[in-house]
Design a protein that fits this description.
Distance between the termini: 53 Å
Order of helices and strands: HEEHHHHHHHH
Largest sheet: 2 strands, antiparallel
């Protein structure tokens, strides 16, 4: 059976992300970092929002597409530099994704919708942009938080958790509190949200 446009788009996003030179190890196996991240995004999105639209599923899968191509060190190592880097990345992720969608035959309206979700337009007003943001936060908290927390002071972690919490919806908060945190991490989360 011929794959659908959606399946082809996902396969092309995965193909692009499989070229990541950075790797991430899980249970002794090494994976291209952004390929693993994008698959975790899909898994978490479908746990969090089982009825996610095809547009939202594509946006989640492509949210970090080819992220390694623009290094953090290409921008000043301060808050302004960080924010500029993030904005440049978002635009690149959206443009690369739209190129894939056009290639597989999606119309302009669908492409614009996916682009708006990746760019997180009207985040608190657009349900799909908010769901993407919740999914990003949940993936961080579920898969990357413990490792990240081990490298930073409790003060910095609490500050980051506070900023993460503000970005999330009530539904996102509920899902986050259901994650299997270690005792120490759960204590930090509780401190951050109290």
């Amino acid at each position: 059976m011929k794959p659908t446009r959606f399946e082809t788009a996902i396969a092309l996003i995965d193909k692009a992300n499989s070229e990541d030179i950075n790797t991430y190890e899980v249970a002794g196996m090494s994976y291209p970092k952004e390929l693993l991240y994008s698959q975790r995004m899909t898994r978490k999105l479908l746990q969090f929002e089982p009825n996610a639209s095809k547009a939202l599923q594509i946006a989640a899968r492509a949210q970090h597409i080819c992220r390694w191509k623009i290094g953090r060190d290409e921008y000043p190592m301060d808050r302004v530099g960080y924010l500029k880097w993030r904005e440049t990345l978002k635009k690149m992720h959206a443009d690369l994704t739209v190129d894939i969608l056009i290639q597989v035959g999606f119309d302009e309206q669908f492409c614009d919708r996916v682009k708006a979700i990746i760019l997180k337009k009207l985040i608190k007003k657009n349900e799909e942009s908010q769901t993407l943001e919740d999914t990003i936060c949940l993936v961080f908290l579920d898969y990357y938080f413990e490792e990240f927390a081990a490298k930073h002071s409790d003060e910095k972690i609490i500050d980051i958790l506070k900023k993460t919490w503000v970005k999330m919806s009530d539904k996102g908060h509920e899902a986050a509190l259901g994650l299997p945190f270690s005792e120490k991490s759960l204590a930090l989360v509780k401190q951050a949200i109290s």
